[in-house]
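Board notes (copied after class):
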Amino acid sequence: MLATRFTDVFGIEHPIVQGGMMWVGRAELAAAVSEAGGLGMVTALTQPTPADLVREIERTRALTEKPFGVNLTILPSISPPPYDEYRRAIIDSGVGIVETAGSSPEPHMAAFKEHGVRVIHKCTSVRHALKAQAVGVDAVSIDGFECAGHPGEDDVPGLVLVPAAADALSIPFIASGGFADGRGLAAALVLGADGINMGSRFLCSAEAPVAQAVKERIVQASELDTNLILRPLRNTVRVAKNAVSDEVVRILDAGGDFPAVQPLVAGARGRKVFEEGDLDAGIWTVGMVQGLIRDIPAAGEIVRRTVEQAEEVLSARLSLFTRRGMTCGTTQTPGNR
């Protein structure tokens, strides 16, 4: 078993977290990940109202008795969702784990702490992770540049970001962005993380509530088949490469502004991709890691084989270096020279 500080704090068996993906983090997927020993995530804002979120939490509980969390992404908006009401729905439902993302979780920390809710905050830089640690979160999830969705504006990949976070943080943290199998989990642990977050890998699972065409596209795609959109506006988002994201890049590179692309990046269009399987209906998020995804297994199988492969990789590498060390350290007699 790969027990870490993260598994100890959050009461789970394996150091694997399912990303809280918009339109994707529903009961069936979250429960399947948790049942396999990972940490499943229900996405709060996928539900149209706080009352709907309560019902989705109840559906998840009917499918698993193991711990699961709720993702609450907090972003500035002209017409923001009722975040306080979603927070209250989470607390009143007795959920013990929340993943916050977007803006600082500080305004919500007192309420969560009062009710014993453990908080993971998603960050894209060490400086943001340190701020989250300072306001009292229990763990952070730190996204490298490879990730789907918002990678931040620093363009620091996980190979640098993860050990930098390990050097700076005192609380547990998990690595996110670029993880699809046990090799990635093993690497993250060696670099100092306490586990991994996987979004795109679970997006391409049997339980993910998206059209089969989306999953098949991920299997067919390579690590080159993503676009970084909205970069000139310093609101970078990594999405699947398709006709719509190509057009967004073209317009902004030619000097266009946000109103020129706003109809193209509307969330309703991305939801249509997931629900109907029209891959060019809108933008949809997926990471570079799709180049490592080659099948559509059950979510529980993803958790199990990721852990098994990580254990095999770590054991094999340790054994390799142990044997080499013994060979190099062998004392030779003059007669053997």
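Comment from the instructor: The two ends are 44 Å apart (CA to CA). The longest strand covers residues 68-74.
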